């Protein structure tokens, strides 16, 4: 799976669930923990998610966008 597609899936999961865990993403996407950490770092830098200990959560802007959808 291309990294852009994987990152979109991660961002979508965070929006849908509000919070995701690295271990769950590793299992669901079949990639290494390091790959997930790099993806979360990239998405956080873009402002699409907020990195938290052991995973990611919605940002204030993504939570507001999800509430209006």
Explain how this protein is built.
- There is one protein chain.
- This protein has a single domain, classed as Arc Repressor Mutant, subunit A.
- It has a 3-stranded antiparallel beta sheet.
- It is 67% helix and 13% strand.
- It has 69 residues and is α+β, with helices and mostly antiparallel strands.
- It contains 4 helices and 3 strands, in the order αβααββα.
Estimate the global geometry from the Cα principal axes. globular
Query: Which structural category fits the helices and strands?
Result: alpha+beta
Summed over residues and divided by their number, the pLDDT gives a mean of 90
Q: In this structure, how is the largest beta sheet organized?
A: 3 strands, antiparallel
CATH topology: Arc Repressor Mutant, subunit A
Q: Approximately how much helix is present in the residues?
A: 55-70%
- Give the CATH architecture: Orthogonal Bundle
**How many discrete structural domains?**
1
**SS strand fraction:** 5-15%
Give the oligomeric state of the chains in this entry, treating copies of one chain as homo and distinct chains as hetero. single chain
Number of DSSP strands? 3
What is the overall number of helices?
4
Strand order of the largest sheet: 1-3-2
Supply the CATH superfamily name. Winged helix-like DNA-binding domain superfamily/Winged helix DNA-binding domain
**CATH level 1 class label:** Mainly Alpha
How far apart lie the N and C ends?
Answer: 27 Å
Radius of gyration: 11 Å
